[in-house]
Structures are given as structure tokens and as C-alpha cells.
Amino acid sequence: MEYDDVKSTIVELFRKAETELGEDVIKAIKKAYEIEENEIAKNQLKTILDNIDAAKKLKVPICQDTGLPIVFVELGRELCLDFDLKKAIIEGVKLATKEIPLRPNAVDPLTRENPGNNVGLHVPQINIDFVEGDKLKLTVMPKGAGSENTSALKMMLPSQVNEIPKFVVEVVKNAFGKPCPPIFVGVGIGSTFDGSAKLAKKALLRDVTVMDEYELRMLEAINDLGIGPMGLGGKTTALAVLVEKGYCHTASLPVAVNIQCWANRRASKVLG
Fold first, then answer.
1. Phi, psi of 2 (to 5 degrees)
2. Over the stretch 120-175, which tens digit does the pLDDT of each residue have?
3. Is the entire prediction scored with pTM above 0.85?
4. Partners of 188 in the β-ladder
5. Run of H or E residues at 256
6. pLDDT tens for residues 189-224?
């Protein structure tokens, strides 16, 4: 495995994530379309499905907001790399921005200065986990601002554990139509203040068609809000609720809700 392998893979993955959705995501949207009875909502879902087909055929980004570049890395502990992995990922993001192209979204938070290449302080956001084996798994997740801006985090008390579903539903209710529903809801429970947020985002990488009883109950409560596709009413406000947990301090209960629009974009590849 060489420096250029990682660099080119990052470009390949962003191109795939920006122009194609995973089969699990498409399946969830199609299911919503099939069960929807509200004519306006059904038309919105049909437009979304047409958009997905057009983007794949034309090889253009699904949405004009191509997101902020987020990369998840699973690094095998037996893998030896003789190059700068972080630099390879950064250079891959620069090239992807130019070639795909991606909208240059990354700016200085205070001056709003835009370097034009989606690279800057702590961007791309690179999350590294060490795993068994000698492989390198790269996963990209372009995250748009419309959904990110409606996300929330709350430092709850341990005695409030039964209030977690209520908080999740409240976040979605407050978001209403801003994140372009139907949405995917990532929930991080536990860990630390920042750790819960990472868990919530990581939850969105899961197969969205597989949920346990706890997640399904929250999904039902969210859909009972009746916000519907694009906030115009209907049966499906959310397509999935996905929860990731982490051990936390005995005196705290961090809960993060990371909202993702219907375009739950992600792509992965294993190298080595």
C-alpha cells in the first residue's frame, strides 16, 4: 500500500458517496414511497428517487451542498505504513474537491475565509479507530449543513435515562422541515461530551434497515409528528433511528442527536 493508493481511494470514495446512495438507503426511501398515502408527500418521495437515479446516471453530486469532508479510518494494528496517512487523506480531499467537483464548504469559523479546497484546521475531520488485522478501511461521509445545523447535544443526568427518547423526538420536532426530511437520526448515548457526538455521527454509517426495538419505538414516535417529506406532511418524517452507546462517567449521561437528510451519503473501501 502506497501514499498514492490512499490519495486516489479518497477521491474514489467521495465521488461514489456524492453521486450514489447505498442500497440500504434507497430501500428505506422506496419503502416510504410505497406506504405513503398523502399525494404531496408521495410526489416529494418520487422526486427524491428520480434525483437519485439522475445523479448516478449523470455522475454528478446528488445535492448542491456536497458537505464537509468527514473520514473514518479503521487501522489494523499489524499494518505498517511508511508514509503520512493523514497527509494522503488531506491531499485526496483537495483532489476530490477539484475533480468531482465538490463545493468548497470549509471556511475559517470567525473570518469565514475560504481556502477553496475543503482543507483547513481540523478539516477534513479524520476519526481513527485501531482494529485487529493488517488492513486499512477508509469510509467517507460528506455531511451537509442543513442537517448538521439541526443536530443537538444535551448533558442529561443519569436519572433522566428514560427521557432520552423524548429528547430525540424534541430535536426532530424543532428541526421540522429544515434538514430536508425524511431524515436519518443518529443518536449517541454515553461516552463524553464530544464522544457522544462522534457516536451519533458514526451511527449513521450502519445499515439503516436494521433497528432494534428501542430504535423502532423512537422512529414510530418521530413519524407520529406528521412532519413528513420536506415538512409538507405525511407518514414518514424519519427513515431510521440508529443508536450507538459508550460507557460514561457514573455522574453523567451525554446524549447527542445527529440528524442526516435523506441523502445519507457514505462510501467505504478496504486496502491492504
1. -120, 170
2. 999 999 999 999 999 999 999 999 999 999 999 999 999 999 999 999 999 999 99
3. yes
4. 244, 256
5. strand 253-260
6. 999 999 999 999 999 999 999 999 999 999 999 999
Edge-to-edge order in the sheet of strand 267-271: 125-131, 68-76, 136-143, 267-271
| Buried b / exposed e along 168-183 (16+ C-beta atoms within 10 A) | bbebbeebebebbbbb
The pLDDT tens digits of the residues spanning 15-46 come to 999 999 999 999 999 999 999 999 999 999 99
Could you give phi then psi for residue 172, rounded to 5 degrees? Answer: -65, -40
SS (H, E, C) 132-177: CCCCEEEEEEEECHHHHCCCEEEEECHHHHHHHHHHHHHHHHHHCC
Direct distance between the N- and C-terminal alpha carbons of the chain, in angstroms, rounded to an integer: 6
Handedness of CA 80, 86, 90, 96 (dihedral sign): positive
- How far is it, in rounded angstroms, from Cα 52 to Cα 47? 9
Total residue length of the chain: 272
Residues pairing with 238 in the sheet: 183
CA-to-CA distance for 87 and 105, rounded, in angstroms?
Answer: 19
Quote the CA–CA distance of 65 and 82 in Å, as a whole number.
35
